[in-house]
Structure formats: C-alpha cells, structure tokens
Prior knowledge:
By secondary structure, this protein is of the alpha+beta class. The chain has 3 helices and 8 strands; from the N terminus they run H-H-E-E-E-E-E-E-E-H-E.
Amino acid sequence: TALGEWDVREPAAGSVEPPPLEKLQQMLADDENDKDYEDFQEMLEDVAKWGMHFISLQSTQNRFRTKAATRREWKVKTTKGGSWHVIAWGTARNSDPGGVMIILNMRTFSGTDIRERLDPPPGLTGRIGGLHLKRRTHEGRQGFDLVLSVGYAFQNTDDEERRHKFWDHLQRIHTKGGARTQHLSAIDGNAH
C-alpha cells in the first residue's frame, strides 16, 4: 500500500489479533528501566503484520532522569517486523502523566527522511512532539512531505494558560512545511 493511502488496514493472512498497542504503551511507561526488550520486539512484529507505517502513543509516562532531557531516541530491530525507530518525549516529573511517542517503521522510512524533530517548548515537555518527514521521489521510492504530531492535552481542570499553550503549539506544528505537506495528528484531547 502506498504511503499516501491512510486507511484502515486488514491484518496480513494468518493474523487475527489486533495490534497490541495498549500493551506496548504499558511496557513503555518506565524510562530506562529494565524493559523486556524481547517482548517489545515481539509486539512490534505483531504490529508490523498490520502493515503500519508508524505508531503514535500518548500518556506513555516516559520518565527521564534529568530535567534537561526532553527527547530520547532508540532503534528496535525485530526478526520478522524489520527495524523501528522510536522517538519519545517525556518529563522528569513523576507527577505528570504525560509522555508521547512516535515509532517509525524503517521499512517505510529512513533516517534521512527525518528533516526536523519538533520538540516541545518549556512547559509542554512530555505533552507534545512531532516529526517533519520528507523524501523526494527517486529511483522507484515514493516521495512524501509529512508532518506527524502526537500530543496529550491538559485536562480542563489544569491551568488555563498551559491548556492554551498546548493548543497554540499544536497550531504552530501545523504550519510546518509547504502547501503540499500532509499533516497527521494523534492527540488525546478528550475532556481537554
């Protein structure tokens, strides 16, 4: 399926279980703790059966050891599901339920496709992040210009200034790129 066809996918033959995104999200909740890497690999292999190009997760509760860190990246190689590139935005505060993540299927994307990492401004760490991905059509590879954003909005009971700052930053992310840039956002904004 071409990258520009954003539709609901049927699983590959022999796969009956839906992608285990909720289980994957729970596994990622603790930063740099001893995650069971093999389980993580296995889940990404299951997700790959659905032909997903990328995964966006909110409320992953990524905890970074220092306040200076707002983004972490790592690669996960699977036996059958190929390689995945994980970009996680988190916080050093234990009281913040935030944490957002984009996981790219490297069968679809390459490291050179990432033109810009759209890190959050102060006050929104672990609440929003994004990527500007771009590739020219070349030697049989389909070109694209895509901005992916992921966010976990503040609740209505949170500070009004922080809530407005979140939505304002999301609008700024949507101004990235040119007239042909496609924008895809995965935002948890219920009761926000």
